[in-house]
Design goal:
The protein is mainly alpha-helical. The protein contains six helices and two strands. Strands 1-2 form a two-stranded antiparallel sheet. The protein is globular and about 40 Å long.
Length: about 140
């Protein structure tokens, strides 16, 4: 009982996607939302770039909360969702280091972190941070 009460005090008790209450086995995201995102997720390649698909409502909600809700712990959800698929690509392509998409210092300070960098940290994979020199419009504004 003590551990269960401590979990409620220190950890979010609702799903980061659907906001429903989490059970004792769930952390940050409910099993239903995790399964739905995992079921439809895949890595696609276009030229030399890789990206995750599809951009469905669950993933869109999770990305928005992660980037604009300052919920840094969501990086662990992404690492759980994409770990094996991403590590397979990195191994097959012999990629030794990842360079996260840089965000301008002002935006990083406003958010408190670079979301891509946090996912890579959660994956425990080598990465190289580069700085963005120009503060461009947020991708969220392009729909």
């Amino acid at each position: 009982m003590f551990l269960k009460d401590m979990k409620k005090i220190f950890f979010k008790s609702t799903c980061a996607v659907c906001s429903k209450p989490l059970n004792e086995r769930e952390y940050d995201i409910c099993e239903k939302c995790f399964s739905e995102i995992e079921r439809v997720s895949s890595i696609k390649k276009e030229g030399d770039l890789y990206f995750f698909l599809p951009y469905n409502d669950h993933l869109k909600s999770l990305i928005f909360k992660y980037k604009y809700g300052s919920i840094k712990d969501i990086s662990t959800i992404y690492s759980r969702l994409f770990r094996y698929k991403l590590l397979d690509v990195l191994a097959s392509e012999k990629i030794e280091v990842i360079i996260p998409v840089p965000i301008h210092e002002k935006r990083e300070n406003a958010r408190g972190f670079n979301q891509v960098e946090e996912i890579i940290k959660a994956l425990k994979y080598p990465y190289m941070k580069i700085r963005r020199s120009e503060n461009t419009n947020s991708m969220h504004n392009f729909h």
